[in-house]
Amino acid sequence: FQPVDPVQVQNIMDRGLALSEEETAVQLAELRADFNDRHIELDKTWLRHFEGVRAFVPDGTTLSESRQLYLGALFSGEYALESAALFNPSIVPHPNQDGLGDDELRFIMSLRATGEGHISSVEFRTGVIHGDHSIQLEMPTQFVTLPERDPNPSFHKPTFLHKLKEMGLENDWSAAVMGGLSAAFNLSELETQRAAATVAMPDSHDVMRTMDCMHWLAESNYQIHFNPSTRVSERIIFPISSNESNGIEDARFVRFVDLDGSATYYATYTAYNGRVILPQLIETTDFLHFRIRTLNGHAAQNKGMALFPRRINGHYAMLSRQDDENLFLMYSDHPHFWSDPVILTRPKRPWEFVKIGNCGSPIETEAGWLVLTHGVGPMRKYCIGAMLLDLNDPSKVIGQLDEPLLKPVGNEREGYVPNVVYSCGALIHRDRLVLPYGLSDSASAIVTVDLNELLAQLTPKG
Fold it and tell me: For a FRET experiment, which of 28, 153, 388, 392 has its CA 20 to 30 Å from that of 404?
């Protein structure tokens, strides 16, 4: 909690500094008694928040740690991450499957948590699917923990250059900055080159705009990590960069296995700054270390991008919805660059007449790629459907359900946004589809479906 008005920040600081050392100790003891059992490493948080306002401390003033902690507390506030909703889940196999029976699967489920001001973040839960398809969720703790942001993240020069070109920022100043950088560079090296180029180039509108946009691009591609001692349910990915300041929405996680057998968990998500949306990508191998990147190319727009779990004919493949109406398919040689989408299917049935999209990444089956869809119909009622695509050529639609697989009924219709069932990803375990879904943007549930029965409805007869 830090007021926008610097005068107000200074006023709060002055009132805090007016307390004596003894009065500060008393206030700090009361705060600890009131809040210590509600948070992990509270002192560390207060000290970090004090650093954000240290510039307002009068010059020459020496502060004890107690005073720093108390001042940090004045600029801190609790935020209820799930106060409005916990919804729109996706589910993937856990990286660690140790200690389970042959017929069991440990999973990680991501959820969109929404709190005051409709700010969304990503939370996680974990559990086990047993052989009889009963599901046991690990009880979450009462704590959440923000990750540490890596202070000097690395960048890939060709990717950075491509994004600058896409943004129309190819000029002498950006060429001078990028020309002095190697194929892989870090933030410190970028800042050094920016400073040197600024001295060499005269001030102009183009230079200032390029400088601001380059800073935005570097800020939007960041790395974070959690302490391994934190439980999965305690980890929270909260908005950090300016382009996601109003929310990280609807992360679609998928376990992607590359040609060499290595596995990476990717999640496309919608970054929202209160005015515009931007699709971005989360990458992790262990759910402890995360890299957040911008997606590039003219097809990286709107909501609902979902990556296939492996390459198809040597290429990455993605579902998307560029026009906020139809479902598209596109291919790429790089997971961060997307262009040339083609329409896969349009709304055809009354329950999807408004628009159609995906409910997460396609799932590979022997019969084809199983794609869960969402359809929006009259009164903006959201239902979940399904379609089947050819394994070798996903542009070929084998079959689609004429009626919804899942639709909101009874109490499921009531919530933050009524009349909605929605998912960001499912998985298959022992011939059953395990489908977590959000209920009217308020809560989440899990349903299982007989896979063979579903595929029979999607496969042409005869």
Answer: 392
